[in-house]
Structures are given as structure tokens and as C-alpha cells.
Amino acid sequence: MFQNILGWFSNDLAIDLGTANTLVFVKGRGIVCNEPSVVAVQKEKVIAVGIEAQKMLGKTPANITTIRPLKDGVIADFDMAGEMLKYFIRKVHNRKSFISPRIAIGVPSTITQVEQRAVKDAAQASGAREIYLIEESMAAAIGAGLPIGEPSGNMIVDIGGGTTDVAVISLHGVVYSKAVKTGGDKMDEAIVNYIKRQTKILIGERTAELIKRTIGSAFKVDGENKSIDIKGRDLVSGIPKTVTVHEDEIREALSESVSVIINTIKVALENTPPELASDIVDRGIVLAGGGALLRGLDLLLKQETGLPVTVADDPLCAVVNGVGKVLDELDILRRVAL
Questions:
Q1: pTM attached to this predicted model
Q2: Which of 1, 191, 293, 313 has the most CB atoms at less than 10 Å from its CB?
Q3: How many helices (H) and strands (E) are present in the chain, helices listed first?
């Protein structure tokens, strides 16, 4: 009863601590913050976090460094991850409320005990009353509206910035899961390397991401071959230059990353118990995460597996929406929390 009374006064938070972006959901208000997971540091002092820090990527003088505290779905810099988490919590938490919030955080399924402790410590330092950690694949399944409590197989593929999490879920539990360190960041890296190899032009991370979002695809959807003009540095002359790249070139650049994701899904299907596998034949595979927005990925996956494939309604926000949903249902929260 006392816990319920506390809940009325506090602003409970759900956080998706992602490699590329951190999203914060406030109970009763929805998603209030969606910013890049980037921290800018000058002489060991944090000077910018999120959007402001991302603007500095690749453009800083020697005395300022931009750090991405999460790499390949794991925490690469504990201190900076803590600072970033504290910043986002303080930014959205209404300090006028006199009760500390309950915080649920979506974390990669590959997270270690040490990393779990680091995330909890950071949340505690920002004044959390209770802290729950939920696997991102489970949160994505809840956010995508899958019936995770039923005795039936649900396959979710969460393609994030650092990792791709594939999970088969039944009765509020993960029956089988597999994660690979291939996601949006690896795709950006592949585009940078491909353009460097083919055109002798060096581009940055942000340009690679723009290319992926604009003309990136996994499968030839129609006859059109879109193109985009990009600016970079000529590796031969050292002078800035503009070149045109086409959709089929980028599809070739992304093919290796896409193959890794498809093979991971196939391995998960091979390891799924037969009774649950028969459910997946009917229900199909659900894609979530930013990578699910890659054009034609669902069509390619359908062709490769022969199963129905759907993209979640709001793939980018599936994890944070899922974590937000369970804030209202404490019994489910305690069942799915790590």
C-alpha cells in the first residue's frame, strides 16, 4: 500500500540505454527524451551530453574528446556511462516531486554482473528509489505488443546500434537468445570502408549514417537506384571533394552485416524447441530497433526464412515503450527484471 502511495507522487522513469541513442520515458507523459549516447569531456570534466556532444563528433580540438560510453552493446567507459545516465535522469525528472523515482532500464542481453552493478550505481547516484534492469529483447517484445505471457513462441529481433539481439519468448521468459555485435554502427563502418576503397574518399561516421538512412537498403525493392552526393576528403590529394554514391553500391557495402544478422536469426530458429517453432511459423518474426528501418530487410528475411516478417509499429522506441509499459504492472516488472 505504501509503495502505491509513493507511486502517485513520484515520476517513474523507463530508460533505454542504447549504444547509439538513450531514450527516457516518464510514466504518464510518454517519451520525453531521445538523445545520442555521446559525452564530450574537457580536462576530465563533462562539458556536453547527448545532442550537444554529438554535434562535436569529429570536430573537436586536442583538449576536448567525445566519448561513446557504450560500444558494441556493452559499457566501454563506466564513469562516462554513469555521468550520461545521471544527466538524462536529472534532465527529465521533475525535481519538484519530493519522492525519488522508480527506474527501469533496458540493457543488452550480453550485460555482465559488473556492468549491471555499474548501471545500478549510476541510477542510484541520480536519486532512484528502486532500480530494475530488463533485457532489451524482452522490453522490445513488450513494446511491440507481443503476447509474452502466453504459452506460445514469439520471436523478436532487436537490431540496435551496437548489437542485434534475437530472442524467443514464452511465459514471461526468454527460452533462447543470441546476440551478435553487429548493428547500426557496424553498418556505418562498412559504408565508410566501402567508400574509402571504391572512391578513395574518406568520410566520417555522421555522413555514413546519413547515407544509410537516405539510400541504404538490404533488398532491391523497386527498379529505382537512388543516389546521394556526399562530401569527404580525397585520400590522394588531401583536398575536400564531392562524389555521388548509389543505392546498389551501399547495398553491397551492407551485405556482410545483413548476412550476419540473417545467420544469427537462422541459428536461433534451429535452436528453438519444436513446439515453439511451430508457433513462429504462424506468428512470424517481429523486427525492432533502429536497424529494422533498413529498407527491404523484412523482405530479404522473408525470402531467406520463408516465415512471415513484420516490423514493429515504432521500432526505434519499442524498447523504451516496453520498459515504460511494465512500470504500470509491478508483478510483470518483477518477473521480467534481471
A1: 0.87
A2: 191
A3: 12, 18
